[in-house]
Every structure is written in structure tokens, then in C-alpha cells.
Amino acid sequence: MLIKSRPSWFLSENDATPESIYKQRRDIVKKLGIAAAAVPFASQTHAGLFDVFSSSNDKVTEQDSRMALEGASSEFSTKGLALTPENKVLTYNNFYEFGTGKGEPAEQAKNFKTTPWTIEITGEVAKPVTLDIADVMKNMEIEERIYRHRCVEAWSMNVPWLGFPLASLLHLVQPTSKAKYVAFETLYDPDQMPGQRGFSSIDYPYVEGLTIAEAMNPLTLMTVGLYGKTLAPQNGAPLRLIVPWKYGFKGIKSIVKIHLLEKQPPTTWNLLAPDEYGFYANVNPNVDHPRWSQASERFIGEGSVFSSVRQETLMFNGYGEQVASLYKNLDLKRNY
Ligand SMILES: Nc1nc2c(c(=O)[nH]1)N[C@H]1C(S)=C(S)[C@@H](COP(=O)(O)O)O[C@H]1N2
Ligand SMILES: [Mo]
């Protein structure tokens, strides 16, 4: 019963080695996790740790559709920075398909339907595939990655995401030598997404892109959860991208398509205002936005989200050791 037969798309280096004891244990934990979704979250393992960082005002009280999800801890996790309380991560959002106010996505995405959900991976790959999110969740090794999250609007968070490296997914489809870029697309469904109805300056669906080297970097996370549970709709359920050294708008939500290609793909914010938002969008305190400084940021922690607790913005959001080499031949003032 514990031995799982993998779907045919899951033929990769994973099959070259026997499943580790660890993976089997994780599968059991995951099964228990699903069963445990009915019990209060506070009685589960992670909550104890998070309580240290959360004040009583920051408790999540509302019942939601999120399921318990565990992840192995990661060497890449932020050290020495308090977590942003869960309810802030759940209620201070940018997801224009569900409204442009920070509190609107949490309200308007409440009934967003994320099952069934498929992700199509096409283009410059040997094995194009359409995956069911349920199979992805069953077969990928989930890690917890606590990452700094820096919006181009100069606010920031520190969030315990759950997910797996995008590289693990791309290895399955075997990119060809022509695959120089990876394009991503959010769901287009005006019936469910009020922001896609009527006039909008954004030409939906929301699209984003990375170079293949950025996509393959071990930090680049296909994200399926946060704070020990699956993602809430407002955070991009069931699957979104997190690229921690880039501005938050690169972290495209509710992905339905991934397309590998030779040419740089268009990206939503760059199309809208090319002088303000580039393709690269690396966090950079030395390159200001035309309308505001990027040297510091408002960290969203406990207390009011409008508190004036500012911290310095770090080059590549603090991930320079892992990613600076990707840009050694690039003028970052021109390629913002
Ligand atoms: N499809 C889609 N993805 C999106 C956005 C959006 O409006 N639509 N907003 C982006 C921006 S600007 C940010 S800062 C992050 C916010 O993610 P969070 O709400 O989980 O913090 O999502 C990004 N992904
Ligand atoms: Mo953002």
C-alpha cells in the first residue's frame, strides 16, 4: 500500500535510484497530513515554532480550505529574520485578477475553484506533458523554504513557503538545447476572476518568464503551500512561482501553462510599463524605480502593515551568493 506506482510522465533520474526510506516516510506523513486536515492546525508540529513569532492578534482563526502539508527543511531558508505572521501573508496580497486592493484577493478569491487543475508543459521539450496537480503533489518532494519576499512596491515579508525546485519539474520534460527561456501563464477565467472582466489595463492572462538558467537555479521554487498548509487562493493556489531574488511580480500565481522557448517571452508588468518594470526585475537597492527609492523596504511583521519599520534592501534580496554569477556579464542598470 505504501509503494506507489508513478504515472508515466514521472520517468526521470528519480527512477534510477531506489526510493529512499526518507521518501517513503514522507509519503506516510503526507497521507497522515491529509487525514490530519480535519484537526485544528495548532495541534500539528509546525505551529509551536510559528507561535514564537506570532502575536495573538496574528492568529488565523477562520476555517479555510487549505490542507495540511509538510516539507523537509532547507539549507536555503532565511536565517535570523522573524517570520511575517500567517494572517498578514493571507490578507495583504497582490493578485489583480481578484482586485487591486491589498485586502481584495482574500475576499474575492474565497470560492476560487482549484480542483481539478492541470498544468501544461510544452514547447522546446522532448516530452511535453499535461499534469494533474494531484499527481504533482503526490510525486514531488516537498520542502519548506523560508524566503524573503520583496515586492517592487517596497514592502517585504519573510514567508515559510512549501514547494519543490522548478528544475525538478523541468527535468521530467527534458528541455531541448533550444530552450533558452521559460514562459508561465496564469489561468484565464473571467467567470471566476472579476479583475479579468470589463476594462483592465492588464491584458490577461497574466504572463511571466525566466531565462533557462534562472529557471534551473535551485532557489527557484514551484510553490504549493505556505505555513504548513496548501496555498490559499489569494496566494496563487494551487501552484505559483517564487523567485526569491526577484521582485514579487515575477512570482506568477495560479499557473496553468509552462512553455519553453528560444526567444525572451513577454511579461505582464513589462508590457504595461516597460520603463518601470524590466524582464529581469532582480531586487536591487542601487537601481531605483522611476517613482520611488528601492534602497529600503517596509517589513511586514507584527502590528500594523503600515508600520514604519524599515529595513535595508539587500542586493538580490540577500541571495547574491547563489545567483550573482548569473548576471556577471549584464549591466543591471540597463537590465532592471
Ligand atoms: N497572476 C498574478 N500573479 C501575481 C500577481 C498578480 O496580480 N497576478 N501579483 C504579483 C505581485 S506584484 C506580487 S508582490 C506577488 C504577491 O504574492 P503574495 O500575495 O502571495 O504575497 O504575486 C505576484 N503574482
Ligand atoms: Mo509586487
Automatic annotation (TrEMBL):
Keyword Cell membrane: no
Cofactor binding description: Binds 1 Mo-molybdopterin (Mo-MPT) cofactor per subunit.
Gene3D superfamilies: Oxidoreductase, molybdopterin-binding domain
Residues in the signal sequence: none
Reactions the enzyme catalyzes: L-methionyl-[protein] + a quinone + H2O = L-methionyl-(S)-S-oxide-[protein] + a quinol; L-methionyl-[protein] + a quinone + H2O = L-methionyl-(R)-S-oxide-[protein] + a quinol
Binding site for Mo-molybdopterin: 93, 96-97, 151, 186, 235, 240, 251-253
Keyword tags: Metal-binding, Molybdenum, Oxidoreductase, Signal
Highest taxon of source: Bacteria
EC class (word): oxidoreductase
Cofactor entry: Mo-molybdopterin
EC number per UniProt: 1.8.5.-
Residue ranges occupied by any Oxidoreductase molybdopterin-binding domain in the UniProt entry: 112-269
InterPro entries: MsrP, OxRdtase_Mopterin-bd_dom, OxRdtase_Mopterin-bd_sf
Entry function: Part of the MsrPQ system that repairs oxidized periplasmic proteins containing methionine sulfoxide residues (Met-O), using respiratory chain electrons. Thus protects these proteins from oxidative-stress damage caused by reactive species of oxygen and chlorine generated by the host defense mechanisms. MsrPQ is essential for the maintenance of envelope integrity under bleach stress, rescuing a wide series of structurally unrelated periplasmic proteins from methionine oxidation.
NCBIfam families the record matches: PRK05363.1
Family that this chain belongs to: Belongs to the MsrP family.
Summary of subunit composition and partner proteins: Heterodimer of a catalytic subunit (MsrP) and a heme-binding subunit (MsrQ).
Name of the protein this chain belongs to: Protein-methionine-sulfoxide reductase catalytic subunit MsrP
Source organism of the structure: Vibrio algivorus
Name of the gene this protein is made from: msrP
